[in-house]
Amino acid sequence: MRQFGYNGLMAVREILHYPDPRLRKKALPVVRVDAEIRELIRDMADTMYEAPGIGLAAIQIDINKRVIVIDTSADRRDLRVFVNPVIVRREGQYGIEEGCLSVPGVYEEVERAQKIEVHALNENGTPFQLLAEDLLAVCIQHEVDHLDGKVFVDYLSRLKQQRIRKKLEKQHRLAM
Fold first, then answer.
1. Using only C-alpha atoms, what is the Rg of the chain?
2. Taking CA 63 as the corner, what is the angle to CA 58 and CA 67, rounded to the nearest 5 degrees?
């Protein structure tokens, strides 16, 4: 159902849940930022805000393209779009409890770089560079991992991964 959302009519897409094998796909680069990609960005923003979350990668909604949306602001009015993002520099260490829309209800501390430099295209296809730190840097790294077929639980011990998998599989069975 479409309602009014981020930019006009709202389209909320289904988010894949771990351990869905489609989350392991490596996303393909976007060749051209066109109307189709801009519609994808709008749908991703609507899906992220509705969930609610602070970041979403296209692969999480089963779209095999290197696109992420992020909004770490308190008022949800600072949408950032990254098409074909590449992290070119990482500095420092920052441990923060992470969650993920594809791993609902699970929060674990993960070590990431505190500062990063990322190069990407915006929603108009214009190249840009961004220096990010702390929460924004973590969020970008988390979403770029999704584009590379990684989920944040990959950074956890095998035992924790098994517990999370069993918990989510049980929740899935109970929901059916």
1. 16
2. 35
Counts of helices then strands in the chain (DSSP H, E): 3, 9
- Determine the Cα–Cα distance for residues 27 and 36; give it in Å rounded to an integer: 16
Looking at this protein, which amino acid is placed at residue 154?
A: D
Of the candidates 88, 107, 89, the one whose C-alpha atom is nearest the C-alpha of residue 98 is 107
Q: Report the C-alpha dihedral over residues 25, 59, 157, 169, rounded to 10 degrees.
A: -100
Put simply, whether the predicted model's pTM sits higher than 0.85 gets the answer yes
Question: From the candidates 50, 91, 133, 143, which is the catalytic residue?
Answer: 143
Cα gap 47→49, rounded to integer Å: 6
Residue 38 tokens read as 């801009």
How sure is the predictor about 2, in pLDDT bands with cuts at 50, 70 and 90?
very low
Does the N-terminal peptide bond of residue 29 adopt cis geometry, omega within 30 degrees of 0?
A: no
- To which residue do tokens 């990254």 refer? 82
- Taking residue 144's Cβ as centre, other Cβ atoms within 10 Å add up to 22
Q: What is the mean pLDDT of the chain?
A: 93
């990431």: which residue's tokens? 112
Contact between residue 108 and residue 138 where contact means Cβ atoms under 8 Å apart = no
Q: Which amino acid type is present at position 105? A: G
143 is catalytic: yes
> May I ask the CATH architecture of the domain 3-175?
Alpha-Beta Complex (3.90)
